[in-house]
Recover the amino acids of this structure.
């Protein structure tokens, strides 16, 4: 295994701080309609103990990115590039060419994932408790001792451990199932937790309460969290950094509050503009016009040029790289400075989270 260190994005902090380095990672599917590239040369350092939010429209590749963090792309999808995991005390490994048995060990123990749709993550014929016991057993842990830990985790998530462990998923509410899944993913005390739309099916109150629980759990367990969502305003106050995906690529990344206040990429700006305000009249809503790209037919040049109000000929031909636009902030746009003037948006209350 060779680990390259030359092409890290400029604004990222030194490599030693990164717990996961994603380098030129792509995912392809061979389909009847042609080859489909559903993640396109993504490079990003995930810093130890940060909360990284990954946002973008439905179908832009967020779940592919999440699955790549565990080399868990569904068959027959093919992941290429590098996903280097750097444990605090130990040798770095590239998950992309790690043997299956080592990968199985690393999942849950080092990098854990809550997949999209908590309900489907539990086997309907098994009680919740059996999932915890099974996970401990599969990783050769002392089951009694781990079940004790499971009870503590469930309590931390304001659940009644005995009731939850003795129930089937369908006997619980969506919020309870989701919290039980979070507890399960923390059972083996992982370093990194990847959460794919963990609050999508829940009401706003439950979404907010799960997010505040996650902040607490993150501090207590020194976790690195990758939080995937299509709901930008939900996470801006909670995540340290935001990565914005469009058409299977990261088009902007930077400190969350800075990206929200001074977005560089026209797509990020359009996304912020499209956020509905609770008190604004309907006619003031601005959904992003046009359709999100088809992975079999990605536009040439900048893939956003077909929807971008400031795109010109250059954007149709040349593909923009991520460039630094602000301290620790990068965007993939030739005309990001122009976008500041021409793609306007207003921030309304709520978008920065409750505490700002
Ligand atoms: N098994 C598969 N085979 C082929 N293409 C797939 C497969 N799963 C997903 N895709 C395609 O990959 C692209 C990225 O999908 P992905 O699930 O990562 O999007 P997403 O951003 O997570 O969307 P959502 O917000 O709806 O969850 C989409 O165009 C999707 O149609
Ligand atoms: Ni998804």
């Amino acid at each position: 295994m060779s680990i390259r260190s030359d092409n890290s994005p400029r604004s990222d902090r030194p490599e030693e701080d990164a717990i996961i380095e994603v380098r030129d990672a792509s995912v392809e599917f061979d389909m009847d309609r042609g080859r489909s590239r559903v993640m396109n040369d993504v490079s990003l350092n995930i810093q130890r103990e940060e909360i990284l939010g990954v946002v973008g429209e439905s179908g832009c590749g967020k779940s592919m990115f999440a699955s790549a963090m565990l080399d868990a792309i569904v068959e027959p999808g093919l992941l290429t590039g590098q996903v280097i995991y750097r444990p605090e005390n130990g040798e770095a490994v590239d998950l992309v060419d790690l043997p299956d048995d080592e990968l199985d060990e690393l999942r849950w123990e080092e990098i854990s994932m809550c997949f999209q749709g908590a309900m489907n993550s539990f086997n309907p014929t098994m009680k919740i408790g059996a999932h915890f016991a099974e996970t401990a057993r599969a990783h050769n842990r002392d089951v009694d001792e781990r079940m004790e830990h499971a009870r503590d985790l469930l309590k931390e998530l304001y659940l009644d451990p005995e009731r939850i462990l003795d129930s089937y998923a369908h006997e619980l509410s969506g919020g309870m199932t989701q919290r039980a899944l979070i507890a399960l993913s923390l059972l083996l005390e992982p370093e990194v937790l990847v959460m794919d739309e963990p609050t999508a099916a829940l009401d706003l109150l439950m979404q907010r309460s799960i997010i505040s629980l996650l902040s607490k759990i993150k501090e207590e367990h020194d976790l690195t969290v990758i939080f995937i969502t299509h709901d930008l305003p939900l996470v801006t106050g909670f995540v340290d950094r935001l990565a914005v995906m469009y058409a299977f690529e990261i088009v902007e990344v930077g400190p969350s509050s800075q990206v929200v206040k001074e977005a560089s990429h026209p797509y990020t700006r359009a996304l912020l503009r499209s956020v509905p305000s609770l008190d604004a009249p309907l006619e003031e809503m601005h959904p992003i016009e046009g359709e999100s790209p088809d992975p079999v037919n990605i536009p040439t040049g900048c893939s956003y040029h077909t929807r971008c109000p400031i795109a010109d000929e250059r954007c149709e031909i040349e593909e923009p790289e991520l460039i630094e636009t602000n301290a620790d902030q990068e965007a993939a746009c030739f005309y990001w400075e122009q976008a500041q003037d021409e793609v306007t948006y207003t921030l309304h209350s709520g978008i920065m989270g409750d505490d700002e």
